[in-house]
What we know:
- Two copies of one chain form a homodimer.
- Chain A is an alpha+beta fold and 208 residues long.
- Chain A has two domains: 2-80 and 201-207, Glutaredoxin (3-Layer(aba) Sandwich); 87-196, Glutathione S-transferase Yfyf (Class Pi), Chain A, domain 2 (Up-down Bundle), CATH 1.20.1050.
- Chain A has helices spanning 13-22, 41-46, 65-75, 87-112, 123-148, 162-170, 184-193, 197-207, and strands spanning 2-6, 26-30, 54-57, 60-63.
- Chain A is globular and about 50 Å long.
Amino acid sequence: MFKLYYSPGSCALAPHLALEEAGADYQAIRVDFKASEQRSPQYLQVNPKGRVPALVTPDGVLTETPAILVYIAQMFPQAALAPLGDPFRFGIAQSFNSYLCSTVHVAHAHKGRGTRWVDESDTAAIAAMQRKVPQSVAAAFELIEQQLFTGPWVLGERYSICDPYLFTLARWLEGDGIDPARFPKVAGHTARMVERPAVRKVMVAHDG
Amino acid sequence: MFKLYYSPGSCALAPHLALEEAGADYQAIRVDFKASEQRSPQYLQVNPKGRVPALVTPDGVLTETPAILVYIAQMFPQAALAPLGDPFRFGIAQSFNSYLCSTVHVAHAHKGRGTRWVDESDTAAIAAMQRKVPQSVAAAFELIEQQLFTGPWVLGERYSICDPYLFTLARWLEGDGIDPARFPKVAGHTARMVERPAVRKVMVAHDG
């Protein structure tokens, strides 16, 4: 039994979907960001970073989305969620997810989490960051569309841990002021994702 | 034969050190950032992201430091650079490197790469970002010092791909206005690292 701590619509959606696709026995536990529950002493015992996702495993707690996704792929090899036996293709999968984590998610975070990088009193700088988000996020999705996405799934014919992660971050495009139709391959991917039974089931916890 | 594209002192130092520790047959190719060589048509053919590191392998090019590090560990299993056979411990290694990539490196990058996240004409916002760097980077190293670092190496008794990456980012502390002595475990780690023959050899290309 695994426990996944998540906040609706956050990047924790990616491992949530991966657990469901893997057929894992898991419990999804909602962390209420509006009540700052991620900063509560109880939650900081689970994840000292005060963020989601956090996956409680029989061996301990794992944090950081790319790490959790690979762990799920390794623990449920029958689900074939990553090219585990091929170092180069696994490297491509890891590279894709690392780009989502450290470039795409970070660019997006400058809209709502600017105080990570400037003082909260500096409202002009926070506004300057927010103004740049449509440009920086779109540039990253342009690279995904033109260079990184194979199709029909991220890595090609086979669905992998890259797919729920791309789906999760692509859902933020409209809120970032970007028309998803600018990226037809990514938009087609989103359309294929929402047809998957695992996605339909899990989205109830994130949208419902 | 591998080719590693690097810029001196950049995060490409981490895979450079890992290749050396693994005993790999590789060539390190310097990319001259002062001449904007990373934006040249030739280099963009290697890495469309216009960044380093990029590792040319017999199967193709890999980018993103955490992905390259794991690839090296998998291609040179005799060097035992990652707990490849244990999904949870491998997950901890991946989580550590993902944190370095998406939180520590990103916090640091707000000093010199602010135009990724605000318009380059917005000099006040760029200055506001720079002012926050000592605080945001130090907070991340505080978490490493208190929670993530086991000792004597990052994961414990065994040297791994987490060690060259931590070493690489800890070298940026002083330039970010942070006294490395504030983090005694990390400082001890740096001292152990510089004694390693592989580190002494590779540093010539980065400091020399």
